[in-house]
Amino acid sequence: MAVQSLRAIRRKIRAVRNLQKIMTAMKMVAAARLRRVQDRVISGKPYTEKMRWLVETLAPHLPAIEHPLLQVRSVQKRGLVIITGDKGLCGAYNNNIIRSAQAFMSQNGAAPFALYCIGRKGYDFFYRRGYQVARHRSQLPVTASFAQFKAVAEDIVNWFLSGEVDEVFVAYGEFVNALVQRPKIVSLLPIKTEVTGDTGQGTQEMREYIFEPKAPDLLSLLLPRYVEHQVYHLLLESLASENAARMNAMSQAADNAEELIKQLTLQANKIRQWNITKELLEITTAVEAMRRARD
Prior knowledge:
Elements: H1 2-58, E1 78-83, H2 93-107, E2 113-118, H3 120-128, E3 133-137, H4 146-161, E4 167-175, E5 181-189, H5 215-294
Parallel strand pairs: 1-2, 1-4, 2-3
Antiparallel strand pairs: 4-5
């Protein structure tokens, strides 16, 4: 029985070692993808921030300009874009975003919500529980081109412009650093136009602008591009958060596997020593019995 137990423990050790190799490989893949996404986020961040500053600074000075993306409507239905992953093995990343979205909908229940799910995990969760999932699509890969991100942004804009929803919010994983990712919900549409540019003296800086080309033509080009880059940034940040969470989860799993291997190895050594001691006792007993029989 002890021999069989020793064989079973050795099989477990081999199985855990194989799993540890898989976890280590997944950790390395996630780390490589994280570096690739981080490079894209860092390279595009100055443009995105400058675009946000430009829109938020100029739009309040154009009260006579009407643009569909600036239109504030009576809220009959809210839209919530939920960005999750297609796969698991990334700790509580997907669950945290889903719980955050549920809490947001329960706290803002004056108007019904329609959901736009990006990623299979979020879609499966909300669809199975009877939520109104108006649209869904798979998660974009790390190597996706800007045109693919742009197509998602255009779909969200059309969702808003068609009148299906009167507001659009986005629930995603905010990337703080490689160790910290937290769920966050931001307003996307209609575009908010608060005046920024605080001078630090408690007053707001007001300037007059001369537009060339004319302001309506400028905004018709600027605002869609602004939304495109906001969606692009949110999707990339979600990818970075997911891969960082997966890298951390696989690292912890590999460490736990190493600890389990140590425990199983210690258990196997104890059983092996017990078997050796038992055999020595049997030999000694047999020798002693033969000696007594001879005497």
